[in-house]
Structures are given as C-alpha cells and as structure tokens.
Amino acid sequence: MKKVKFFIDDIPVEGSQDESIWTVAKREGITLPHLCFADKPGYRADGNCRACMVSIEGERVLAASCIRKPTEGMKVVTNDERSIKSRKMVLELLVTDQPDRETSHDPDSHFWKIASDIDVEKSRFEKREKKIVPCEDSSHVAMSVNLDACINCNLCVRACREVQVNDVIGMGNRVTPRR
Amino acid sequence: MGTEKAVKLLEKNNWDKKLLNELVEMMGDASICGLGQAAGNPIRCALKYFGKDIS
Known about the structure:
The complex is a heterodimer. Chain A has four helices and seven strands; from the N terminus they run ββαβββααββα. By secondary structure, chain A is of the alpha+beta class.
C-alpha cells in the first residue's frame, strides 16, 4: 500500500493509504477519544459517534478521524480549541442521558474512561424524559442488554455482523425507545 | 441528539445563551449530515442579531 506523508499537529508523520488518521495518531502517541470505533482487528470504523473529531486545514467542518484517510500533505490538527471543544461537547451530550456514573451498570466502562480522560464528568443539559428511557432487554436467554446506557453507536451490530459473522442483532427505533 | 437538547434549552423561559452557542457551534462542526450542521443556524442568528432582546 502506498505511503502517505502528512502532518498531525505540525509533526510530519507517515501512514499508509488505507490507514485512518486515528490509527496514525495513535502510533504517534495521540489517542483520540473513540466510542463507536473499536481499536481491534476486524472492526470496521463507522465514524458515527463524533467523539474523535479533528480539524483538517482548509476544510469547512471537522472530520471523524477514525474513518477519515489521510492524503499527501494534509494538515491535521487534534489539539486546537475548536476540535477539543467539539469532542468534549459530544461526550457531554452523551453523558447527559447516561445513568449516573456512581449508580451505572459499569462505572469502569470504556465510555466512562473516555469521558473522564477528556474531563467530561457532568452535563449541563437536561436529561431525556424518564418515559422514553428504554429499559433492560433480557427477553432472550442468550443476550441481555442495558438499553438505558446505549449510545446507539452501532458497534455491537457491526461486531455481530462483520466480526462474528452471526448477524443476529439489529437496531430499531433509534430516536425513542430502542429494541 | 443536539437538536433534541437544543429544543429543551429553547423551551425554557431564560435561555442559557452560552450553552446554546456552544451546542450550536459543535453541531455545525461535528454533525454527520448537512441538516444537523445547519439546524442550529436560526438559533445562531437569533442570538447574534437579537441577543439584546432575548433575556
């Protein structure tokens, strides 16, 4: 695969064409927040959670680094105010509708680790109404899922379909209570 | 998610202008689709041009 030379925070870096900006940044010692993307072999990035946003010089909006591939000479910035604020705001929105950390299903979850890594522990937003918070689904003996902590990132569906190749779970009713 | 929380903020009698601005900025920068990016524009304009009239 062809090598691509570009910049991350003004540091010249090299990656291959099929690598994401996120992967190259991690190799360079910058681990950007990631929720919908699992850093494991076989997992396809989707770029939907928007926790890994970075600025790219000359572009109007930020880009999700987990899905964006670098191009020659691209100038990526991870530590500017705009992208840092954006990443924090995304986490703050997600934290809003989570069960409180102390009483959550798993206070040491990947989600909470990422949130505390970027200093987002509390939210200034109003929680969603209780009546639309989905409850636990343990209707099948083989699976049980705490839907009140689900962020709709689709990772479990991709893992089931593309990594395990079982294709037995799906997602519905993404806005209001999910099944 | 952003629009949902924006509506909640707008429904209040006293707008949290700082938070609304931050939210709208992030939606414009980080939404996947153009609809989400533009959804905050009316709020942005209201705050920019009618900021003094809004308590």
